[in-house]
Design brief:
219 residues; four-stranded mixed β-sheet; alpha+beta
């Protein structure tokens, strides 16, 4: 199986983490290839010539790009184990809506928190917390967004938990104070081996961001 599936990735990428979790949930063996984004490999440029971005999932020599699409593809191809998307069409549409919400809000707002200061950062923090509270509302009293089992929205969102430490350190605030239910959910997710082994150490991610800030001249 490993020779059939290859993942081109970059270790701190929350988008790549999604694919790692999905593959782990399905028990799929694969070859992991770490990319140097300053010197992209010929394979990456060949497999994703449009965006030239990671992650790229290669299955039987064919590329699948964009993490939301990759996770859905993994769920469809290996549908016999640990289904991620609901079977009900409405519930499936709802899961896709919230995954799209995460993509449109969480990454960009998080990036603003660590790249800006003053009023711009304050506005980003406010909208970030508001977005997390909306996600808390959708989670409700469920164990996971997927119900009793890890689902599509869980896989899409939980990689950002590893970046929360970055946002808190750079933005000087505490997410757990504002969104305790969401933090409790993330900790439940981390009890699953598929999640825990797919996410890097938060201190390591923070160290990476400090290097980026220095490279970008952000104090």
């Amino acid at each position: 199986m490993a020779e059939e599936v290859v993942l081109l990735d970059f270790w701190p990428s929350p988008f790549g983490m999604r694919v790692r979790i999905a593959l782990a949930e399905k028990g799929i063996q694969y070859e992991y290839k770490e990319e140097d984004l300053r010197n992209k490999s010929d394979l990456l440029l060949k497999m994703n010539p449009i965006h030239k971005k990671i992650p790229v999932l290669i299955h039987k020599g064919k590329p699948v790009c964009e993490s939301l699409i990759q996770v859905q593809y993994i769920d469809e191809v290996w549908h016999g184990k640990s289904p991620l998307l609901p079977s009900d069409p409405y519930q499936r549409a709802n899961a896709r809506f919230w995954a799209d919400f995460v993509d449109k809000k969480i990454y960009d707002l998080g990036r603003k928190i660590w790249t800006t200061k003053g009023e711009e950062q304050a506005a980003a923090k406010k909208e970030f917390i508001e977005s997390l509270k909306l996600l808390e509302g959708e989670l409700g009293d469920k164990t996971y967004f997927g119900g009793d089992n890890l689902g599509y929205v869980d896989v899409v969102l939980v990689p950002f938990y590893n970046w929360f430490y970055v946002y808190e350190k750079c933005g000087n605030f505490t997410i757990e104070e504002e969104c305790p239910k969401l933090i409790a959910w993330a900790k439940r997710c981390l009890q699953k081996e598929s999640v825990a082994k797919s996410l890097p150490d938060e201190e390591k991610v923070y160290g990476f961001v400090l290097q980026l800030k220095k490279a970008f001249g952000i104090e």
